[in-house]
Each structure stands twice: as C-alpha cells, then as structure tokens.
Amino acid sequence: MSTESDRELTLTRIIEAPPAKLFRCWTEPELLKQWFTPPPFKTIHAEVDLRPGGSSLIVMQGPDGGKIECPGIYLEVIPNEKLVFTDAYLSAWEPSAKPFMTAILTFDDLGDRTKYTARVLHWTAEDRKAHEEMGFHQGWGVATDQLAELAAKL
Amino acid sequence: MSTESDRELTLTRIIEAPPAKLFRCWTEPELLKQWFTPPPFKTIHAEVDLRPGGSSLIVMQGPDGGKIECPGIYLEVIPNEKLVFTDAYLSAWEPSAKPFMTAILTFDDLGDRTKYTARVLHWTAEDRKAHEEMGFHQGWGVATDQLAELAAKL
Hints:
The structure is a homodimer of 154-residue chains.
Chain A: E1 8-15, H1 19-27, H2 29-35, E2 42-48, E3 55-61, E4 67-78, E5 82-86, E6 89-91, E7 94-95, E8 101-110, E9 113-122, H3 125-133, H4 136-153
Antiparallel strand pairs in A: 1-9, 2-3, 3-4, 4-5, 5-8, 6-7, 8-9
C-alpha cells in the first residue's frame, strides 16, 4: 500500500551516516559532484547558494558529451535537517519555463544513522508519471547508494 | 516603451503614505479586507501567516454571493520593504492545482511617500495575457486607489 499521492514520488532509506554528513553531500558542490549522477552521466558543475530564494545550478554531462543544465532555487534550508528546492524558479523570483517538481528532503537523526526521505512533488499527475517513466526510482536509487557511500567515508 | 517581459504585468504608483502603513495594509487581515477587492466584490476573509512558506488565504465574494478562494504562500517577507507571494503552492510545499502567478511587491521609502511597485510574474505568456484580459490593470488599479486611501488614514 502506498501513501504517495498521485502527484508524488518518494524515496526513503536508512543510511549509515549522521544527518550532518548527508547534508554536506547535498550542499557542498565538490561533494555533490561526486555522487549526484548515476553513471554514465557525470555532474560536471554545481552551484549552491544555500538560503531561501538562493539559486542552485547543477550541470550534468551524458556519455555523448551533451550537457544538461538543471537550474532551480532553494525554498527552505534547515541545516542538517531539511532541504527544499524547486525548478519552478530560475532565481528569486523568476519563473522557469516549466514548473515540474519540488523536492523535500528530510534527514532524521537516528544516532549514527539517518532516516533519509526524499519526497518529490509534481504539479500534475502527468508530470509525476513522466518522472517515474524517466527512471526516477532507478536514478534516485543509484544516486542515493552513491550518496550513502560518500557520506560514510567523510 | 515597456520594460515588462512577455510574462509580466506591472503596476507602479507613488502613494502618499509611508512604506510601513502600506505594509500593514497588505499584511493585517482586518486592513486587507477593507481595500483588497474592487466593488461589487468584497473580501470577506483573510488569513496571513507572514513568513517564508507561510500560507495566505483570501476569500472574496461576488455580488451574487458566490465565494472565490485564493490560497497561496509567502515566499519572501522583508517588513516594510518587500513582500513576495505565489499561488504555486497551497502551503509549504504542497503544489497547487495550477501555478499561475508570483507577485513581487516593493515599498520604496520616499519620506512620507512610497514608490509602490507590484510586479506580477506568470509562468507563461498565455497566462499573462489571460490575466490582463481578466482586467488586471483595472482591478489592481482600483484596489491600489483603495489601498492608498486606507493607508493615508492610518
């Protein structure tokens, strides 16, 4: 039984690293670049203006050399606890070409471990379905494995 | 010559009241209800959770008694200087049925007067056009007259 609404995709994991290390991996560009993309894609550039309304820019590169720019902004930043961002704005408060998703990440402290939850909310059920068919579970799953591995080494 | 982009509607006024009074009119429900709606519409209810991510709810009533609910959230709150809100979310961070607009209000202090600017940004040129055809300039114009009149009396 799913508790997801028809506009939401969710990933939950227990990760063997404390919240502070996972938060660092999400917010320090040099760390973000190491785990964010499932191979053969790479993250070649990351900008993090970590404050509500601050811009985020991630540039990925495919195996053919093609670049994919993912601009967005942060909406809510609670260090080591919560991070919310969306692609609905390019900067504060310039609307993007297409508001597609809002991600709500929570990092629940379980001592040396973290209950990590990524809720990805879409504006339409069609966009949720498209995101799922683009390989959300596989892509975020592999990326989260890489995140857990990196955080455990910090 | 207009500096508006094809997704933006703008209203600018010099108002004979200081920024703090205009800000109060925008953020205190009992004041908001007095000026927000051009007759014969009325604003019969207003909720203001004045913080980034806080919800806003305005309920208007038409001459036939029909109610129009306008939910949204605040994105940026700088007392007496700036107020940003959008209908893209119903609460932090639940996507609305349709992200239509983001309003950026600025209150520039000119002494006893204020340069008041309302920039209304849409996600599409079609939505901007629809908003203009719904009577944006007339509606916001009359409401702003009412705002100026109320603020001058505070």
